Amino acid sequence: MSTERNNKAMPAICNEGCNKQFEVNGFQTARLPGAIEKTYFICPHCKHEYVAFYTDLEVRELQAKIRRVQTKLQNPRVDQAETLKQFKYIQDQIKAGMDRVRLTIVRG
């Protein structure tokens, strides 16, 4: 199963394939075994696949949590310093989780 997320177009160069320039107009998501999702884009010229990141259930829950914290940051009545500290902590957890999942995939 694959879905596409519409994001703002960003320029890219296929540095691992045809070396042509193109615009990434969105990311695709594929479900892998073990509730892992791969988020990626493909060069439209040579079809080389570039993986942006992998997530598992734990990482996706952290991503939902960080979105809630981002909403809190928009509230001027919230302790901004404490909320920002919380945001950075969750951000670090997400990075560590994505690294962990990537290692799981790479090691097979």
Separate helix tally: 2
Order of helices and strands: EEEEHH
Q: How many strands? A: 4
> Helix coverage percent of residues?
40-55%
Q: How much is the radius of gyration in Å?
A: 17 Å
Largest beta-sheet details:
4 strands, antiparallel
Structural class assignment: alpha+beta
Average pLDDT for all residues: 92
Shape: globular
pLDDT under 50 segments (min length 5)? none
Strand fraction: 35-45%
In spatial order, strands of the major sheet run 1-2-3-4
Q: Could you tell me how far the N terminus lies from the C terminus, measured between alpha carbons in angstroms?
A: 20 Å
What does this structure look like?
Helix 1 (57-73) runs antiparallel to helix 2. It contains two helices and four strands. The chain has a four-stranded antiparallel beta sheet with strand order 1-2-3-4. A hairpin with a 3-residue loop joins strand 2 (21-32) and strand 3. By secondary structure, it is an alpha+beta fold.
Please provide a brief summary of the model.
The protein has helices at 57-73, 80-107, and strands spanning 2-13, 21-32, 36-42, 49-55. The chain has 108 residues and is of the alpha+beta class. A hairpin with a 7-residue loop joins strand 1 and strand 2.
Topology:
Elements: E1 2-13, E2 21-32, E3 36-42, E4 49-55, H1 57-73, H2 80-107
Antiparallel strand pairs: 1-2, 2-3, 3-4
Helix pairs in contact: 1-2
Salient structural properties:
108 residues
